[in-house]
Design goal:
The complex is a heterodimer of chains A (about 300) and B (about 270).
Chain A lengths: L1 H15 L8 H27 L1 E2 L9 E2 L3 H8 L1 H32 L6 H9 L6 H12 L6 H8 L7 H4 L1 H26 L3 H9 L4 H29 L3 H5 L12 H10 L4 H31 L5
Antiparallel strand pairs in A: 1-2
Chain B lengths: L1 H30 L3 H4 L13 H7 L5 H32 L5 H12 L3 H15 L5 H25 L3 H9 L4 H12 L1 H17 L2 H6 L7 H6 L9 H21 L1 H8 L6
Helix pairs in contact in B: 1-13, 3-13, 4-7, 4-10, 5-7, 7-10, 8-9
Classes of the chains: A mainly alpha (about 300), B mainly alpha (about 270).
Protein backbone atom coordinates (compact mmCIF):
# COMPACT_ATOMS: atom_id res chain seq x y z
CA UNK A 1 0.00 0.00 0.00
CA UNK A 2 2.48 2.56 1.18
CA UNK A 3 4.85 1.37 -1.52
CA UNK A 4 2.29 2.27 -4.17
CA UNK A 5 1.87 5.68 -2.64
CA UNK A 6 5.59 6.31 -2.76
CA UNK A 7 5.80 5.02 -6.30
CA UNK A 8 2.96 7.31 -7.38
CA UNK A 9 4.59 10.26 -5.70
CA UNK A 10 7.76 9.44 -7.61
CA UNK A 11 5.87 9.27 -10.90
CA UNK A 12 4.16 12.58 -10.26
CA UNK A 13 7.46 14.20 -9.47
CA UNK A 14 8.91 12.92 -12.70
CA UNK A 15 6.06 14.36 -14.71
CA UNK A 16 6.47 17.74 -13.11
CA UNK A 17 10.22 17.85 -13.58
CA UNK A 18 12.01 17.21 -16.80
CA UNK A 19 11.31 13.80 -18.28
CA UNK A 20 14.78 12.48 -17.58
CA UNK A 21 14.13 12.36 -13.83
CA UNK A 22 12.11 9.76 -11.99
CA UNK A 23 13.63 6.49 -13.11
CA UNK A 24 11.34 3.50 -12.59
CA UNK A 25 13.36 2.32 -9.60
CA UNK A 26 10.50 0.38 -8.06
CA UNK A 27 9.68 -1.44 -11.25
CA UNK A 28 13.33 -2.34 -11.78
CA UNK A 29 13.66 -3.77 -8.29
CA UNK A 30 10.28 -5.45 -7.98
CA UNK A 31 10.97 -8.67 -9.92
CA UNK A 32 14.05 -9.60 -7.87
CA UNK A 33 12.50 -8.65 -4.55
CA UNK A 34 9.24 -10.46 -5.31
CA UNK A 35 11.09 -13.55 -6.42
CA UNK A 36 13.05 -13.78 -3.20
CA UNK A 37 9.85 -13.16 -1.24
CA UNK A 38 8.01 -16.01 -2.94
CA UNK A 39 10.84 -18.53 -2.93
CA UNK A 40 12.45 -17.75 0.42
CA UNK A 41 10.40 -15.66 2.82
CA UNK A 42 6.98 -17.25 2.21
CA UNK A 43 8.29 -20.83 2.57
CA UNK A 44 10.15 -19.81 5.71
CA UNK A 45 6.92 -18.46 7.17
CA UNK A 46 5.18 -21.69 6.21
CA UNK A 47 7.88 -23.71 7.97
CA UNK A 48 7.18 -21.74 11.13
CA UNK A 49 3.46 -22.45 10.71
CA UNK A 50 3.97 -26.20 10.18
CA UNK A 51 6.23 -26.39 13.21
CA UNK A 52 3.17 -25.67 15.36
CA UNK A 53 0.93 -28.15 13.53
CA UNK A 54 0.23 -31.85 13.94
CA UNK A 55 0.95 -32.86 10.39
CA UNK A 56 2.05 -36.26 9.20
CA UNK A 57 1.53 -37.17 5.55
CA UNK A 58 0.77 -40.76 6.60
CA UNK A 59 -2.05 -39.62 8.90
CA UNK A 60 -3.86 -36.94 6.91
CA UNK A 61 -6.86 -36.84 9.24
CA UNK A 62 -4.91 -35.94 12.35
CA UNK A 63 -4.23 -32.32 11.57
CA UNK A 64 -4.54 -29.39 13.89
CA UNK A 65 -2.76 -26.97 16.11
CA UNK A 66 -0.05 -28.72 18.10
CA UNK A 67 1.13 -25.88 20.26
CA UNK A 68 4.65 -26.65 21.36
CA UNK A 69 4.06 -30.39 20.88
CA UNK A 70 6.54 -30.79 18.02
CA UNK A 71 9.20 -28.94 19.94
CA UNK A 72 8.62 -31.13 23.01
CA UNK A 73 9.09 -34.28 20.91
CA UNK A 74 12.13 -32.73 19.30
CA UNK A 75 13.80 -31.75 22.56
CA UNK A 76 13.28 -35.22 24.04
CA UNK A 77 14.55 -36.97 20.91
CA UNK A 78 18.07 -38.20 21.51
CA UNK A 79 18.70 -38.32 17.76
CA UNK A 80 18.00 -34.61 17.47
CA UNK A 81 20.55 -33.75 20.14
CA UNK A 82 23.02 -36.13 18.56
CA UNK A 83 22.39 -34.47 15.19
CA UNK A 84 22.91 -31.05 16.73
CA UNK A 85 26.16 -32.26 18.30
CA UNK A 86 27.35 -33.77 15.01
CA UNK A 87 26.52 -30.55 13.21
CA UNK A 88 28.61 -28.51 15.63
CA UNK A 89 31.47 -31.04 15.60
CA UNK A 90 31.48 -30.94 11.83
CA UNK A 91 31.46 -27.14 11.68
CA UNK A 92 34.18 -26.70 14.31
CA UNK A 93 36.51 -29.41 13.00
CA UNK A 94 36.17 -28.35 9.37
CA UNK A 95 36.68 -24.71 10.33
CA UNK A 96 39.82 -25.49 12.31
CA UNK A 97 41.29 -27.58 9.49
CA UNK A 98 40.34 -25.47 6.48
CA UNK A 99 41.18 -22.09 7.99
CA UNK A 100 44.56 -23.06 9.46
CA UNK A 101 45.59 -25.10 6.44
CA UNK A 102 44.19 -22.46 4.10
CA UNK A 103 46.23 -19.77 5.85
CA UNK A 104 49.47 -21.74 5.65
CA UNK A 105 48.86 -22.52 1.98
CA UNK A 106 47.92 -18.91 1.21
CA UNK A 107 51.21 -17.74 2.74
CA UNK A 108 53.02 -20.37 0.67
CA UNK A 109 51.33 -19.45 -2.60
CA UNK A 110 51.90 -15.78 -1.92
CA UNK A 111 55.62 -16.39 -2.48
CA UNK A 112 57.06 -16.57 -5.95
CA UNK A 113 58.31 -19.91 -7.16
CA UNK A 114 58.59 -21.82 -10.39
CA UNK A 115 55.19 -22.71 -11.80
CA UNK A 116 53.31 -21.09 -8.94
CA UNK A 117 50.27 -20.24 -11.06
CA UNK A 118 49.78 -23.80 -12.23
CA UNK A 119 50.42 -25.27 -8.77
CA UNK A 120 47.90 -22.89 -7.21
CA UNK A 121 45.33 -23.72 -9.86
CA UNK A 122 45.75 -27.45 -9.18
CA UNK A 123 45.52 -26.89 -5.43
CA UNK A 124 42.22 -25.02 -5.58
CA UNK A 125 40.57 -27.47 -8.00
CA UNK A 126 38.84 -29.58 -5.27
CA UNK A 127 36.53 -26.65 -4.58
CA UNK A 128 34.90 -27.06 -7.99
CA UNK A 129 34.18 -30.76 -7.60
CA UNK A 130 30.51 -31.58 -7.17
CA UNK A 131 29.92 -32.81 -3.57
CA UNK A 132 28.31 -36.08 -4.70
CA UNK A 133 31.38 -36.87 -6.77
CA UNK A 134 33.63 -36.11 -3.79
CA UNK A 135 31.59 -38.49 -1.68
CA UNK A 136 31.76 -41.44 -4.05
CA UNK A 137 35.39 -40.78 -4.92
CA UNK A 138 36.47 -40.88 -1.27
CA UNK A 139 34.22 -43.76 -0.30
CA UNK A 140 35.32 -45.98 -3.16
CA UNK A 141 38.54 -45.29 -4.98
CA UNK A 142 40.39 -43.65 -2.09
CA UNK A 143 39.16 -45.03 1.23
CA UNK A 144 37.63 -48.41 0.32
CA UNK A 145 38.88 -50.86 3.01
CA UNK A 146 40.18 -53.37 0.47
CA UNK A 147 40.43 -51.81 -2.96
CA UNK A 148 41.01 -48.16 -2.06
CA UNK A 149 44.40 -46.69 -2.82
CA UNK A 150 44.84 -45.61 0.80
CA UNK A 151 44.38 -49.22 1.95
CA UNK A 152 46.99 -50.30 -0.58
CA UNK A 153 49.39 -47.63 0.69
CA UNK A 154 48.84 -48.77 4.28
CA UNK A 155 49.42 -52.42 3.42
CA UNK A 156 52.57 -51.48 1.52
CA UNK A 157 53.85 -49.59 4.55
CA UNK A 158 53.05 -52.57 6.76
CA UNK A 159 49.89 -51.29 8.46
CA UNK A 160 46.51 -52.92 8.72
CA UNK A 161 44.08 -51.15 6.35
CA UNK A 162 41.23 -49.30 8.03
CA UNK A 163 37.55 -49.26 7.09
CA UNK A 164 37.39 -45.50 7.42
CA UNK A 165 33.68 -44.93 6.82
CA UNK A 166 32.66 -47.76 9.17
CA UNK A 167 35.00 -47.08 12.07
CA UNK A 168 35.79 -43.38 11.75
CA UNK A 169 32.70 -42.09 9.93
CA UNK A 170 32.78 -38.55 11.31
CA UNK A 171 36.49 -38.26 10.64
CA UNK A 172 35.92 -39.39 7.05
CA UNK A 173 33.15 -36.86 6.48
CA UNK A 174 35.29 -34.09 7.98
CA UNK A 175 38.18 -35.16 5.75
CA UNK A 176 36.04 -34.92 2.60
CA UNK A 177 34.53 -31.57 3.43
CA UNK A 178 37.90 -30.15 4.43
CA UNK A 179 39.38 -31.32 1.14
CA UNK A 180 36.67 -29.42 -0.71
CA UNK A 181 36.80 -26.25 1.36
CA UNK A 182 40.50 -25.72 2.13
CA UNK A 183 40.87 -24.37 -1.43
CA UNK A 184 38.11 -21.84 -0.70
CA UNK A 185 39.92 -20.57 2.40
CA UNK A 186 43.19 -20.59 0.46
CA UNK A 187 41.71 -18.63 -2.44
CA UNK A 188 40.11 -15.93 -0.32
CA UNK A 189 43.03 -15.55 2.10
CA UNK A 190 45.41 -15.37 -0.85
CA UNK A 191 43.32 -12.60 -2.39
CA UNK A 192 43.47 -10.85 0.98
CA UNK A 193 47.26 -11.23 1.17
CA UNK A 194 47.67 -9.84 -2.32
CA UNK A 195 45.79 -6.70 -1.37
CA UNK A 196 48.15 -6.02 1.57
CA UNK A 197 49.13 -2.38 1.94
CA UNK A 198 52.55 -2.56 0.23
CA UNK A 199 53.55 0.95 1.27
CA UNK A 200 53.09 0.13 4.95
CA UNK A 201 55.21 -2.99 4.61
CA UNK A 202 57.94 -0.97 2.88
CA UNK A 203 57.81 1.55 5.68
CA UNK A 204 58.20 -0.94 8.54
CA UNK A 205 60.95 -2.72 6.64
CA UNK A 206 62.85 0.55 6.35
CA UNK A 207 62.34 0.97 10.08
CA UNK A 208 64.11 -2.35 10.51
CA UNK A 209 61.16 -4.46 11.62
CA UNK A 210 61.77 -8.21 11.63
CA UNK A 211 59.74 -10.54 9.47
CA UNK A 212 57.86 -11.70 12.57
CA UNK A 213 57.01 -8.15 13.63
CA UNK A 214 55.93 -7.33 10.12
CA UNK A 215 53.66 -10.38 10.16
CA UNK A 216 52.18 -9.58 13.56
CA UNK A 217 51.59 -5.88 13.12
CA UNK A 218 50.71 -5.54 9.43
CA UNK A 219 49.68 -8.88 7.97
CA UNK A 220 47.54 -10.24 10.82
CA UNK A 221 45.42 -7.10 11.36
CA UNK A 222 44.81 -6.75 7.64
CA UNK A 223 44.03 -10.45 7.25
CA UNK A 224 41.81 -10.36 10.32
CA UNK A 225 38.87 -9.03 8.34
CA UNK A 226 39.36 -11.54 5.57
CA UNK A 227 39.63 -14.37 8.10
CA UNK A 228 36.40 -13.20 9.67
CA UNK A 229 34.59 -13.44 6.35
CA UNK A 230 36.03 -16.88 5.63
CA UNK A 231 35.04 -18.25 9.04
CA UNK A 232 31.48 -16.93 8.84
CA UNK A 233 30.82 -18.02 5.25
CA UNK A 234 32.32 -21.45 5.79
CA UNK A 235 30.32 -22.03 8.96
CA UNK A 236 27.13 -21.30 7.06
CA UNK A 237 28.08 -23.79 4.35
CA UNK A 238 29.27 -26.41 6.85
CA UNK A 239 26.04 -26.08 8.84
CA UNK A 240 24.13 -27.18 5.74
CA UNK A 241 26.40 -30.02 4.56
CA UNK A 242 24.23 -32.65 2.97
CA UNK A 243 25.37 -34.18 -0.32
CA UNK A 244 28.67 -35.54 1.02
CA UNK A 245 26.79 -37.41 3.75
CA UNK A 246 24.00 -38.49 1.40
CA UNK A 247 26.51 -40.02 -1.02
CA UNK A 248 28.61 -41.85 1.58
CA UNK A 249 27.30 -42.78 5.02
CA UNK A 250 23.59 -41.86 4.67
CA UNK A 251 23.90 -40.50 8.18
CA UNK A 252 25.28 -43.74 9.62
CA UNK A 253 26.50 -46.07 10.84
CA UNK A 254 23.54 -45.75 13.18
CA UNK A 255 23.24 -42.01 13.48
CA UNK A 256 26.99 -41.37 13.75
CA UNK A 257 27.04 -38.85 10.90
CA UNK A 258 23.45 -37.63 10.97
CA UNK A 259 23.68 -33.86 11.04
CA UNK A 260 20.78 -31.43 11.28
CA UNK A 261 20.04 -31.21 7.53
CA UNK A 262 20.13 -34.99 7.22
CA UNK A 263 17.93 -35.41 10.30
CA UNK A 264 15.33 -33.06 8.79
CA UNK A 265 15.54 -34.78 5.43
CA UNK A 266 14.96 -38.19 7.03
CA UNK A 267 12.05 -37.04 9.17
CA UNK A 268 10.36 -35.35 6.25
CA UNK A 269 11.04 -37.85 3.46
CA UNK A 270 11.00 -41.16 5.35
CA UNK A 271 8.87 -40.53 8.46
CA UNK A 272 6.62 -38.07 6.59
CA UNK A 273 6.47 -36.03 9.80
CA UNK A 274 6.00 -32.51 8.48
CA UNK A 275 5.41 -30.98 11.90
CA UNK A 276 8.45 -32.45 13.59
CA UNK A 277 10.82 -31.83 10.69
CA UNK A 278 9.59 -28.25 10.47
CA UNK A 279 10.36 -27.76 14.14
CA UNK A 280 13.87 -29.13 13.49
CA UNK A 281 14.14 -26.83 10.48
CA UNK A 282 13.42 -23.87 12.76
CA UNK A 283 16.30 -25.02 14.95
CA UNK A 284 18.54 -25.13 11.86
CA UNK A 285 17.46 -21.65 10.81
CA UNK A 286 18.17 -20.27 14.29
CA UNK A 287 21.60 -21.89 14.33
CA UNK A 288 22.45 -20.50 10.89
CA UNK A 289 21.23 -17.08 11.95
CA UNK A 290 23.53 -16.95 14.94
CA UNK A 291 26.42 -17.19 12.49
CA UNK A 292 24.78 -15.06 9.80
CA UNK A 293 24.06 -12.26 12.27
CA UNK A 294 27.74 -11.50 12.65
CA UNK A 295 28.50 -11.79 8.97
CA UNK A 296 25.63 -9.60 7.87
CA UNK A 297 26.65 -6.97 10.39
CA UNK A 298 30.13 -7.10 8.92
CA UNK A 299 28.93 -6.90 5.31
CA UNK A 300 26.60 -4.01 6.14
CA UNK A 301 29.43 -2.19 7.91
CA UNK A 302 31.60 -2.75 4.88
CA UNK A 303 28.92 -1.27 2.67
CA UNK A 304 29.02 2.02 4.54
CA UNK A 305 32.81 2.10 4.61
CA UNK A 306 32.83 1.03 0.94
CA UNK A 307 34.91 3.86 -0.43
CA UNK A 308 37.83 3.33 1.87
CA UNK A 309 39.43 0.28 0.38
CA UNK B 1 70.61 -17.85 -1.30
CA UNK B 2 67.46 -16.50 -2.95
CA UNK B 3 67.68 -19.19 -5.62
CA UNK B 4 67.93 -21.95 -3.06
CA UNK B 5 65.00 -20.87 -0.96
CA UNK B 6 62.78 -20.44 -3.98
CA UNK B 7 63.69 -23.96 -5.09
CA UNK B 8 62.65 -25.27 -1.66
CA UNK B 9 59.41 -23.30 -1.95
CA UNK B 10 58.77 -24.71 -5.38
CA UNK B 11 59.18 -28.25 -4.06
CA UNK B 12 56.79 -27.66 -1.14
CA UNK B 13 54.33 -25.75 -3.31
CA UNK B 14 54.21 -28.47 -5.94
CA UNK B 15 53.96 -31.18 -3.29
CA UNK B 16 50.91 -29.45 -1.83
CA UNK B 17 49.39 -29.03 -5.28
CA UNK B 18 49.90 -32.70 -6.09
CA UNK B 19 48.43 -33.89 -2.77
CA UNK B 20 45.37 -31.69 -3.19
CA UNK B 21 44.89 -32.63 -6.82
CA UNK B 22 45.63 -36.33 -6.38
CA UNK B 23 42.03 -37.52 -5.77
CA UNK B 24 40.93 -35.83 -9.00
CA UNK B 25 43.89 -37.28 -10.88
CA UNK B 26 43.15 -40.74 -9.48
CA UNK B 27 39.56 -40.42 -10.65
CA UNK B 28 40.73 -39.54 -14.16
CA UNK B 29 43.15 -42.48 -14.19
CA UNK B 30 40.44 -44.87 -12.95
CA UNK B 31 38.15 -43.63 -15.71
CA UNK B 32 40.76 -44.63 -18.29
CA UNK B 33 41.01 -48.21 -17.02
CA UNK B 34 39.00 -51.33 -17.66
CA UNK B 35 36.58 -52.34 -14.90
CA UNK B 36 38.87 -55.20 -13.83
CA UNK B 37 41.99 -53.11 -13.49
CA UNK B 38 40.05 -50.28 -11.81
CA UNK B 39 38.94 -52.67 -9.08
CA UNK B 40 42.23 -54.17 -8.07
CA UNK B 41 43.93 -54.56 -4.72
CA UNK B 42 47.23 -53.37 -6.11
CA UNK B 43 46.55 -50.14 -7.97
CA UNK B 44 47.92 -50.04 -11.50
CA UNK B 45 49.84 -46.87 -12.16
CA UNK B 46 51.07 -47.97 -15.56
CA UNK B 47 48.39 -49.30 -17.86
CA UNK B 48 47.09 -49.01 -21.39
CA UNK B 49 44.45 -46.31 -21.27
CA UNK B 50 41.09 -47.15 -22.77
CA UNK B 51 38.04 -45.03 -23.46
CA UNK B 52 35.79 -48.05 -22.97
CA UNK B 53 34.28 -46.71 -19.72
CA UNK B 54 33.48 -43.38 -21.29
CA UNK B 55 31.72 -45.20 -24.11
CA UNK B 56 29.67 -47.25 -21.62
CA UNK B 57 28.76 -44.17 -19.61
CA UNK B 58 27.72 -42.36 -22.77
CA UNK B 59 25.77 -45.25 -24.25
CA UNK B 60 22.02 -44.91 -24.51
CA UNK B 61 21.48 -47.40 -21.71
CA UNK B 62 23.45 -45.60 -19.03
CA UNK B 63 21.81 -42.32 -19.91
CA UNK B 64 24.57 -39.78 -19.27
CA UNK B 65 23.10 -37.50 -21.92
CA UNK B 66 19.68 -37.37 -20.25
CA UNK B 67 21.20 -36.09 -17.01
CA UNK B 68 23.74 -33.88 -18.72
CA UNK B 69 20.97 -32.22 -20.69
CA UNK B 70 19.01 -31.56 -17.50
CA UNK B 71 22.09 -30.17 -15.76
CA UNK B 72 22.91 -27.94 -18.70
CA UNK B 73 19.34 -26.79 -19.22
CA UNK B 74 18.67 -25.99 -15.56
CA UNK B 75 21.99 -24.24 -14.95
CA UNK B 76 21.89 -22.17 -18.16
CA UNK B 77 18.23 -21.18 -17.77
CA UNK B 78 18.62 -20.34 -14.09
CA UNK B 79 21.66 -18.22 -14.93
CA UNK B 80 19.81 -16.31 -17.67
CA UNK B 81 16.71 -15.76 -15.54
CA UNK B 82 18.91 -14.79 -12.59
CA UNK B 83 20.70 -12.19 -14.73
CA UNK B 84 17.39 -10.87 -16.05
CA UNK B 85 16.19 -10.33 -12.48
CA UNK B 86 19.49 -9.19 -10.99
CA UNK B 87 20.54 -6.62 -13.62
CA UNK B 88 17.57 -4.23 -13.30
CA UNK B 89 17.59 -4.47 -9.49
CA UNK B 90 21.32 -3.86 -9.27
CA UNK B 91 21.03 -1.07 -11.81
CA UNK B 92 18.39 0.73 -9.80
CA UNK B 93 20.39 0.40 -6.59
CA UNK B 94 23.74 1.36 -8.10
CA UNK B 95 22.61 4.42 -10.07
CA UNK B 96 19.58 5.61 -8.13
CA UNK B 97 20.48 4.85 -4.52
CA UNK B 98 17.96 5.77 -1.89
CA UNK B 99 17.84 5.47 1.87
CA UNK B 100 16.49 1.97 1.51
CA UNK B 101 19.15 0.68 -0.90
CA UNK B 102 21.49 -0.53 1.83
CA UNK B 103 18.64 -2.19 3.64
CA UNK B 104 17.51 -4.00 0.48
CA UNK B 105 21.02 -5.21 -0.27
CA UNK B 106 21.52 -6.53 3.25
CA UNK B 107 18.07 -8.10 3.22
CA UNK B 108 19.02 -9.94 0.04
CA UNK B 109 22.19 -11.33 1.63
CA UNK B 110 20.20 -12.41 4.64
CA UNK B 111 17.91 -14.58 2.48
CA UNK B 112 21.05 -16.42 1.39
CA UNK B 113 21.54 -17.46 4.98
CA UNK B 114 18.25 -19.25 5.31
CA UNK B 115 19.49 -22.84 5.14
CA UNK B 116 17.87 -24.85 2.35
CA UNK B 117 16.40 -27.28 4.89
CA UNK B 118 14.60 -24.31 6.43
CA UNK B 119 12.40 -23.99 3.35
CA UNK B 120 12.59 -27.60 2.12
CA UNK B 121 9.30 -28.84 3.55
CA UNK B 122 6.91 -26.11 2.34
CA UNK B 123 8.59 -26.06 -1.06
CA UNK B 124 8.25 -29.82 -1.32
CA UNK B 125 4.55 -29.69 -0.38
CA UNK B 126 3.72 -26.75 -2.64
CA UNK B 127 5.69 -28.24 -5.54
CA UNK B 128 3.82 -31.50 -5.06
CA UNK B 129 0.49 -29.69 -5.30
CA UNK B 130 1.60 -27.73 -8.37
CA UNK B 131 3.22 -30.72 -10.07
CA UNK B 132 6.66 -29.12 -9.98
CA UNK B 133 8.40 -32.11 -8.39
CA UNK B 134 10.72 -33.77 -10.88
CA UNK B 135 10.24 -30.80 -13.20
CA UNK B 136 13.07 -28.81 -14.79
CA UNK B 137 11.34 -25.48 -14.14
CA UNK B 138 10.82 -26.31 -10.49
CA UNK B 139 14.57 -26.82 -10.11
CA UNK B 140 15.38 -23.75 -12.19
CA UNK B 141 13.28 -21.56 -9.88
CA UNK B 142 15.09 -22.95 -6.84
CA UNK B 143 18.50 -22.34 -8.43
CA UNK B 144 17.47 -18.77 -9.24
CA UNK B 145 16.39 -18.22 -5.64
CA UNK B 146 19.63 -19.69 -4.38
CA UNK B 147 21.87 -17.57 -6.64
CA UNK B 148 19.92 -14.33 -6.92
CA UNK B 149 21.34 -12.60 -3.81
CA UNK B 150 24.91 -13.34 -4.92
CA UNK B 151 24.15 -12.21 -8.46
CA UNK B 152 22.53 -8.92 -7.40
CA UNK B 153 25.53 -8.16 -5.19
CA UNK B 154 28.06 -8.97 -7.86
CA UNK B 155 26.32 -7.02 -10.61
CA UNK B 156 25.83 -4.15 -8.15
CA UNK B 157 29.54 -4.07 -7.36
CA UNK B 158 30.41 -4.02 -11.07
CA UNK B 159 27.91 -1.24 -11.77
CA UNK B 160 29.46 0.73 -8.92
CA UNK B 161 32.74 0.72 -10.87
CA UNK B 162 31.05 2.55 -13.78
CA UNK B 163 31.34 6.33 -13.37
CA UNK B 164 27.96 7.86 -12.59
CA UNK B 165 28.58 10.78 -14.97
CA UNK B 166 28.06 8.44 -17.90
CA UNK B 167 24.48 7.77 -16.84
CA UNK B 168 23.85 11.45 -16.28
CA UNK B 169 25.35 12.38 -19.62
CA UNK B 170 23.21 9.81 -21.42
CA UNK B 171 20.10 11.08 -19.68
CA UNK B 172 20.84 14.69 -20.50
CA UNK B 173 21.04 13.57 -24.12
CA UNK B 174 17.46 12.46 -23.67
CA UNK B 175 17.95 8.69 -23.41
CA UNK B 176 15.34 6.85 -21.37
CA UNK B 177 16.34 4.77 -18.32
CA UNK B 178 15.98 1.54 -20.25
CA UNK B 179 17.90 2.84 -23.24
CA UNK B 180 20.69 4.06 -20.97
CA UNK B 181 20.82 0.71 -19.25
CA UNK B 182 20.86 -1.40 -22.41
CA UNK B 183 22.91 0.79 -24.75
CA UNK B 184 25.37 2.49 -22.44
CA UNK B 185 25.86 0.67 -19.13
CA UNK B 186 25.45 -2.99 -20.03
CA UNK B 187 28.15 -2.93 -22.73
CA UNK B 188 30.51 -1.25 -20.26
CA UNK B 189 29.78 -3.79 -17.53
CA UNK B 190 29.79 -6.77 -19.88
CA UNK B 191 32.93 -8.44 -18.45
CA UNK B 192 31.45 -8.18 -14.96
CA UNK B 193 28.13 -9.57 -16.11
CA UNK B 194 29.92 -12.45 -17.79
CA UNK B 195 31.77 -13.32 -14.58
CA UNK B 196 28.54 -13.14 -12.63
CA UNK B 197 26.93 -15.52 -15.10
CA UNK B 198 29.93 -17.84 -14.92
CA UNK B 199 29.76 -18.05 -11.13
CA UNK B 200 26.00 -18.66 -11.19
CA UNK B 201 26.48 -21.38 -13.79
CA UNK B 202 29.12 -23.15 -11.68
CA UNK B 203 27.02 -22.97 -8.52
CA UNK B 204 23.88 -24.21 -10.26
CA UNK B 205 25.69 -27.06 -12.01
CA UNK B 206 27.23 -28.28 -8.75
CA UNK B 207 24.06 -27.81 -6.70
CA UNK B 208 23.23 -31.08 -5.01
CA UNK B 209 20.68 -30.54 -2.25
CA UNK B 210 17.67 -29.57 -4.36
CA UNK B 211 18.69 -31.84 -7.23
CA UNK B 212 18.67 -34.83 -4.89
CA UNK B 213 15.44 -34.00 -3.06
CA UNK B 214 13.22 -32.46 -5.76
CA UNK B 215 13.89 -34.65 -8.78
CA UNK B 216 13.37 -38.33 -9.48
CA UNK B 217 14.13 -39.15 -13.04
CA UNK B 218 12.65 -36.77 -15.60
CA UNK B 219 14.38 -33.69 -14.24
CA UNK B 220 17.26 -35.48 -12.49
CA UNK B 221 20.60 -33.76 -12.99
CA UNK B 222 24.11 -35.18 -13.06
CA UNK B 223 24.24 -34.99 -9.25
CA UNK B 224 21.47 -37.61 -9.15
CA UNK B 225 23.13 -39.65 -11.90
CA UNK B 226 26.39 -39.86 -9.94
CA UNK B 227 24.52 -40.56 -6.70
CA UNK B 228 22.86 -43.54 -8.41
CA UNK B 229 26.26 -45.27 -8.36
CA UNK B 230 26.12 -45.15 -4.57
CA UNK B 231 25.22 -48.81 -4.12
CA UNK B 232 27.42 -50.17 -6.90
CA UNK B 233 30.11 -51.49 -4.49
CA UNK B 234 33.01 -51.84 -6.86
CA UNK B 235 31.09 -53.15 -9.85
CA UNK B 236 31.35 -50.04 -11.94
CA UNK B 237 34.26 -47.99 -10.64
CA UNK B 238 35.61 -47.22 -14.08
CA UNK B 239 32.21 -46.25 -15.43
CA UNK B 240 31.44 -44.23 -12.29
CA UNK B 241 34.76 -42.43 -12.67
CA UNK B 242 34.17 -41.76 -16.34
CA UNK B 243 30.74 -40.29 -15.59
CA UNK B 244 32.24 -38.25 -12.74
CA UNK B 245 35.03 -36.91 -14.95
CA UNK B 246 32.49 -35.80 -17.52
CA UNK B 247 30.50 -34.14 -14.74
CA UNK B 248 33.36 -32.38 -13.02
CA UNK B 249 35.81 -31.54 -15.81
CA UNK B 250 33.88 -28.71 -17.50
CA UNK B 251 33.30 -27.01 -14.18
CA UNK B 252 36.89 -27.34 -13.00
CA UNK B 253 38.05 -25.75 -16.24
CA UNK B 254 35.48 -22.93 -15.94
CA UNK B 255 36.46 -22.57 -12.29
CA UNK B 256 40.10 -22.04 -13.19
CA UNK B 257 39.02 -19.00 -15.19
CA UNK B 258 36.58 -17.78 -12.57
CA UNK B 259 38.88 -17.81 -9.51
CA UNK B 260 38.90 -14.05 -8.97
CA UNK B 261 35.18 -13.62 -9.61
CA UNK B 262 34.47 -16.46 -7.26
CA UNK B 263 36.11 -14.57 -4.41
CA UNK B 264 34.24 -11.38 -5.17
CA UNK B 265 30.88 -13.10 -5.55
CA UNK B 266 31.02 -15.52 -2.67
CA UNK B 267 32.21 -12.92 -0.17
CA UNK B 268 29.54 -10.44 -1.31
CA UNK B 269 32.23 -8.03 -2.41
CA UNK B 270 33.83 -7.97 1.04
CA UNK B 271 37.08 -9.38 -0.40
CA UNK B 272 38.22 -8.31 -3.86
Amino acid sequence: MSNDAVANAGDTASHQGAKRHGPPVKRLMAPAVLFLMVWMIVPLAMTVYYAFENYNLMMPTMRGFAGLGNFEILLTDGTFWAALGHTLTLVMACLAITVSLGLVLALLFNKTFLGRGVARTLAISPFFVMPVVTGLLFKNMLLHPVYGIVSWAMRTLGFEPIDWFAHYPMFSVILMISWEWTPFALLILLTGLQSLPEDQIEAVRLDGASRLQEFRHIVIPHLGQVLYVVVMLESIFFLTSFAEIYATTSGGPGTATTNLPYYIYQNAFFQYDIGLSSAAAIAAVILANIFAFFLIRFVAGNLNAGGQR
Amino acid sequence: MEQKSSLGLAVIGWLVAIVMFFPILWMVLTALKTEQSAFSMVPEFVFTPTLESFKTALSQNAGYWHYAFNSLFTSVMSTLIGLALAIPAAYAMAFYPSKRTDFTLVWMVSTKFIPAVGVLIPIFLVYKTLGLIDNNWGLIALFVGMNLPIMVWMVYSYFKDVPKDIVEAAEIDGASTLATMFRVILPLALPGLASTGLLALILAWNESFWSLTMADHNAATLAAFIASFKSAEGLFWAKMSAASVMTVAPIIVLGWFAQKQMVRGLTFGAVK
